[in-house]
Amino acid sequence: MNLTVVSGAIIRNGRILLTQRRSDTDFPKAWETPGGKVIKHETCYFGLIRELEEEIDVTVLSAAFLWRDDFPDMLQAGEKCHVSFWLYHVTAMRREPRSKEGQGFGWFNQKEILGLMLAPGTAKAVPTLLKTMERNNGY
């Protein structure tokens, strides 16, 4: 099975918003940039908009592509999948983020990120995330 996952880096005042996966999901309790699976006939950009609305109650007004990678043998719900992971930098949004799906939620600086257990896509994107955090203290 092939899956496409989108994720949004929201950076404010030198901190990035991460959500913590629930214990009943793949990669339990791992921290990640918020996002989720793209559905059939949906672009990655529109998948990002939908997922961030569903997960953290924000309306994405603009986002810039940051990074992409493939995970050819990732386990999802016990099934081996090819996962394409797309990361965007959310550059403008409406409403304050809040947890809507019962997941953990927090703002982290660069040093704190390095001490967290991260989900695979976010973990592999850390160098890109750190560079983006250095360049962007606001949205």
Report what the structure shows.
- The chain is an alpha+beta fold and 139 residues long.
- The chain has one domain: Nucleoside Triphosphate Pyrophosphohydrolase.
- It has four helices and eight strands; from the N terminus they run βββββαβββααα.
- It has helices at residues 44-56, 110-114, 120-124, 126-135; strands at 2-9, 11-12, 15-20, 31-32, 35-37, 59-76, 79-94, 104-108.
- The strands form two sheets. Strands 5-1-7-6 form a four-stranded mixed β-sheet, sandwiched between helices. Strands 2, 3, 4 and 8 form a four-stranded antiparallel β-sheet that branches.
- A hairpin with a 2-residue loop joins strand 6 (59-76) and strand 7 (79-94).
- It is globular and about 40 Å long.
- The chain starts with a strand and ends with a helix.
Précis, in short:
Helix content is 24%, strand content 43%.
Given the structure, what is the number of helices?
4
Name the beta content range: 35-45%
The CATH architecture designation is Alpha-Beta Complex
Strands, total number? 8
Secondary structure: elements and pairs:
Blueprint: E1 2-9, E2 11-12, E3 15-20, E4 31-32, E5 35-37, H1 44-56, E6 59-76, E7 79-94, E8 104-108, H2 110-114, H3 120-124, H4 126-135
Parallel strand pairs: 1-7
Antiparallel strand pairs: 1-5, 2-3, 3-4, 3-8, 6-7
